[in-house]
Amino acid sequence: MGNIDFRTGDLTGKLGGLVGARWKQSPYTRRYVVPANPRTDNQMAVRDSWAFLVAIGRRINSTILKLFTLPKPKAMSAFNRFMQINKWFIDTHPDIYESVKISEGGLYCLPITSIVASEAGGTVTVNWPVTMQGEAKADDVAIIIAFNDTQDSYGFSTTVERSVGTAVVPLEGVETNEVHVWMFFVQGAELASVSKYESGEYVA
Questions:
Q1: C-alpha to C-alpha distances, 9 to 5, 15, 26, 29, 148, nearest whole angstrom
Q2: pLDDT tens for residues 9-50?
Q3: Are 93 and 40 in contact (CB under 8 A)?
Q4: To pair with 162 at 20 to 30 A between CA atoms, which of 1, 5, 107, 147?
Q5: Where are the beta strands (DSSP E) in the chain?
Q6: How many Å is the maximal CA-CA distance in the chain?
Q7: φ, ψ for residue 189 (rounded to 5)?
Q8: List of residues 6+ apart from 116 with CB closer than 8 A
Q9: Spatial CB neighbours of 7, under 8 Å, sequence gap ≥ 6
Q10: What letter would DSSP give residue 61?
């Protein structure tokens, strides 16, 4: 609702088909126009990609991103850094988990060898090669995220060393569910690897 200052004649807010405001302390009035929202296919796809990433990022922000985004971002939050390294995902909006990056870095990391999601155990067992190369060390820590989108739940592991080659992540599910797993390695407070992805179905 608009307001008129009867001393000056200035209009603020919306009144009928007019909108009044101030810019650099000077009053002005313009015609009220309803903002356009064309909802094109491409526009909707970009919105879906944003929502897809934000949902994942919020889930892992406090347990993974804030603690293991290395090196620590200086001019932005770990969550914003996560969104930044996935900008291409938003631009191309593939909406597939395999395309999401959790971490980005030069520390050595091979793809996940296998995952076994157990309905009976309520766990996901993740296996990886223990090959060393470059700056990799046996005591690098494996950061693992497992996500069940059917039940909208996730589990994680942040304590198993690279040399162990396997980790068990708690995550319940049934045989009709699919599990999505990302893994990357960190070393100290500065080095991280790019994240690797694997998916699979639960077994009895």
A1: 5, 13, 13, 11, 60
A2: 566 677 777 777 777 777 777 777 777 777 777 777 778 888
A3: no
A4: 147
A5: 3-5, 10-15, 18-23, 26-31, 114-118, 123-127, 141-148, 153-157, 166-170, 178-187, 191-192, 196-203
A6: 79
A7: -110, 10
A8: 124, 125, 200, 203
A9: none
A10: I
pLDDT above 80: residue 194: yes
pTM: 0.79
Cβ-in-10-Å burial (0-12, 13-18, 19+) of 194 comes to middle
d(C-alpha 144, C-alpha 156), whole Å? 5
Angle between helices 78-85 and 41-60 (to 10 degrees): 140
Span 157-170, average pLDDT: 98
- Facing residues of 22 across strands? 27
Please report the domains of the chain, with CATH numbers, ordered by start residue. Answer: 1-35 (no CATH), 41-203 (2.60.40.10)
- Side chain identity, residue 79: F
Tokens 């060898």, residue? Answer: 113
